[in-house]
Amino acid sequence: MTQRILVTGAAGKIGSMLRPRLARPDRTLRLLDVAPLEPSSGEEVVTGSVSDLEVVRAACEGADAVVHLAGRSGEAPWPEILSHNIDGTFTVLEAARLAGVTRVVFASSNHAVGFRPAGEEAPDYAFPRPDTFYGVSKVTGEALGSLYHDRHGMDVVCLRIGTCTPRPPTERSLATWLSPDDCARLVEASLSAPSPGFRVVWGISANTRARFSLAEARALGYEPRDDAERYADEVSPAGELDRTYVGGSFCAVKEAR
Ligand code: 15L
């Protein structure tokens, strides 16, 4: 039977890297974004916003799971964070519930705990310590996921993604990098683990310099294969905040823009 996965924010950076990596002969990827997209074979496109309940509900019809990536991907003025990230995540969970979709994989972020000291091992489920309004939106998304699990029995897996780029750009990312291939492995594990319930796991590759627990991600079936260390000679040097906090330069934001 063909599996159908709804991917929100599919035109974004992570969505674009995941599309070819999640493609399977027995799977349809239904791509939702406000930006126009050209479907490849095995893909369907829905154009619309994650803040529009009717659009997302229709997009959820017949889906087996949702991979929720949509939203601002860094700090933004509060009204934007509120509508695109916080209300967007509520809308996705509510639409999934109304359509009977029982599993949501949520792209959370290291910035949910960005003010943690960078030198300490970060455990799974580390208590929220957001570094920005953006980080607050990720904490809120995790809290909504917890509620939808406890209240409605949905499986919600929150991925605290580090730096998901083709190569690690900075010295900080030698610890925080999540390679695109490992990202796909983690999403795949989150989609296929039997009855995961509510989880908060780190989305990090097997980086030599990482100080993030991968125990909970591994318990889902994730086996990272990449290590940022092989790019150590190419990265730009770390700044003071990168050495101090998990969230690095995000911790410098002072103004509610
Ligand atoms: C994130 O959550 C952002 O979306 C991304 O742009 C990077 O800043 C990344 O975290 C990071 O911390 O490197």
Structural class: alpha/beta
- The strand line-up of the biggest sheet is 3-2-1-4-5-6-7
Give the overall form: globular
- Mind describing the biggest β-sheet? 7 strands, parallel
- How much helix, percentage-wise, in residues? 25-40%
Mean pLDDT score: 97
Strand content: 15-25%
Count, helices: 8
Question: How many DSSP E strands?
Answer: 7
Family: Belongs to the NAD(P)-dependent epimerase/dehydratase family.
Protein name: NAD-dependent dehydratase
Domain NAD-dependent epimerase/dehydratase: 5-163
Keywords: NAD, Oxidoreductase
Give a concise summary.
With 257 residues, the chain is of the alpha/beta class. The chain has eight helices and seven strands. A seven-stranded parallel β-sheet has the order 3-2-1-4-5-6-7, with helices on both faces.
